[in-house]
Amino acid sequence: MKAVVYKGPENLALEEREVPEPAPGEVLIETKAVGICGSDVSIYYGNFKKIEPPLTIGHEGGGVVRELGEGVDWPKEGTRVAVSPLDYCGKCEYCIDARYSLCENLKTIGMIEREGEYAEYFVAPARNCHVIPESLEWRQAALIDTLAGPVATIERRNIPVNSGVAVFGAGPAGLFFARLAKLKGAGEVYLMGHNDDRLELGRSYGADRIINTHDTDPVETILEFTNGKGTETVIEAAGSEQASSQGLSSLAKGGTMMVYGIVESGPVAVSMEDIALDEYELFGIADNTHGYNQAIELIGAGEVEVEPLITHQFSLSELPDAFSRHLMRDKKEGYIKGVVEL
C-alpha cells in the first residue's frame, strides 16, 4: 500500500508499505478521507517533539472497516467509521476517570508510537471507531475530528445563555467555536484573527463582531462594546502568546478562559494576581474523544457546516509537495482546511 511517511523535519516521503494486520482488539480500515490538522504541520517542521520518525502521519480520518482483529465483534466489516486518534490504556487513574488524553501510557494515531492515516489502510482500536451515516460525504467526515475538539471543550464548561464570548483565532477550530457558542445560546460573539477572508467567513458561523488584530486592539474593542466589563467566556484557539495574553485581558470578572490552542513559542506570562482577585477560571483541553458522536450528529443535521472550510483537496501522492511548498503553514492560495481523499 502507499503511505506518506514523516522521516524528519521537512521530510515527507510517499512509500510502499505492507498492509498492516489488526492486533487483538483492533480493526483494519480502508482509508477514504483524512483531514490535514495543524498538528501535522507542526510535525512537518519538527515542532512536535514526541514523534519518533519514521512514522506515517495523519489522524483526522475515516474509512470502511475491512478486517476484524481477534476478539472484535463490532464494528462489523463494511461499516463506515470515523476514528478518534487517542489510544489509551484504559487502566490508569486518568483513564478510569475518562480523561484519556492524560493517560499514563498514551499513544496517538499518526503522532505517538502508532502509524497514521495518510495511507491506503490503517489499523485502530475498535473502541475508537464511531459510525458515520451514509448521508455524510467522506470529505465532510474528514472534519469530524476538527469539530470534536471544540464540542468536547464547550461541553466541559457550558456557556451561559446571552453571555458574551470572545474567540481568538479564526481557523477551522475558531470558526467552529463561534458556531457552537451560538448554538449554546451565547449573546455577542467576538471573533479575532488577522485574515480578512476568514473573519468574513466567521459571520456565517455566528460571529457578531469580527476584529482584525493587525488593525485593531481586540482588548480595547471588547471592553468598549461591553462597557468595560469584558466577556464571560474567552476561547483561545489561535495558539499564540499574544492571543493568550489578550484573551485574559478581555475576560470579565468571574469569567472562564478555555485554552484550546497550543502555544509553541514557549511559556506565556500571566498575572496570577488578576486570576486570584478577579476569580478567573482557566482550563485546557486536549481530548476530543468525548466530542466525536455529537460532532457527527451536528454535521449530519446541518447544524455545523464544514464544506465552506474545505479549500484544498489532495491525493496521497500530492501531499509531500503541498507540505514542501509551505502551502498549509503560510496559508497560500486562500488555504483554510485541506482534505486528503483516496
From TrEMBL:
A GO term, aspect molecular function: oxidoreductase activity
Pfam families: ADH_N, ADH_zinc_N
Domain Enoyl reductase (ER) residues, every copy: 8-340
Keywords: Metal-binding, Oxidoreductase, Zinc
Protein name: L-threonine 3-dehydrogenase
Organism of derivation: uncultured organism
Lineage: unclassified sequences, environmental samples
